[in-house]
Amino acid sequence: MIHEVDEALRRLVKDEALRGSEIDVAFDAPTKDWAARRNAPTVNIYLYDVREDMRRRSRGLLSEYDQRGQVTARHLPPQHVKLSYLVTAWTQRPEDEHRVLSDLLLGLLPHEAVPAGVLTGSLAELGLPVPMTVALPPPEDRAFADVWTALGGELKPSLDVVVSAPIHSGRVYPAGPPATDGLKIDTGGERVGHRVSDAGAVDGQRRVAMAREHRKSR
After folding, report:
1. Structural domains of the chain, with CATH
2. Are strands 79-90 and 159-167 parallel, antiparallel or unpaired?
3. pLDDT in tens, 186-214
4. Across the chain, what does the average pLDDT equal?
5. pLDDT band for position 137 (50/70/90)?
6. Residue 195 CB neighbours (<10 A)
7. 51: which of 81, 92, 154, 165 lies 20 to 30 Å off by Cα?
8. Nearest partner of 81 among 14, 128, 136, judged by Cα
9. DSSP 8-state class, residue 113
């Protein structure tokens, strides 16, 4: 799933934000060694944090149906995983970097979700929105300065892009066949039963009351 989000961001940045320019897109950690080896203008999209999006967690089970409309299995709702990217521009002059960052900001801000046209693999198969935020303030437990310190590099202007990607839990529970026998009540001497009709409707309470009246009259 992560590599599918990487590819979606690459296509989004190349096709819309940079509008087909020759600027490279890289996903390497922007360390000092990487910066020294770079020999062309580059947009770096560095994945620095992966955690579950607790705000989008759902409960319960979802049903799967066959062509006859009968339940064949149940599975847990998809979970959402927040992928946080540090997006930076690398050129020879700060003015050019700022211009590239401006293009990135203008190209990404209009999208509240990753466009369906750039999704592939499991993300496309699920058919669910993939929310995306751009340049929001970081959570209180995380600061960009800490990220740069961990990378051993100098602080640079950057965009924080967070994608909340849905992922199937993989846990599926098979469903049993539909019921064909209706309510059955053992009154001690006689058994009162009712077979499910084609519509599947059973008036259980009325049958129980009839059984009790039958026992009283004996």
Report:
1. 2-174 (3.30.2000.30), 184-216 (no CATH)
2. antiparallel
3. 766 655 555 555 444 445 455 555 555 65
4. 81
5. confident
6. 10
7. 154
8. 128
9. B
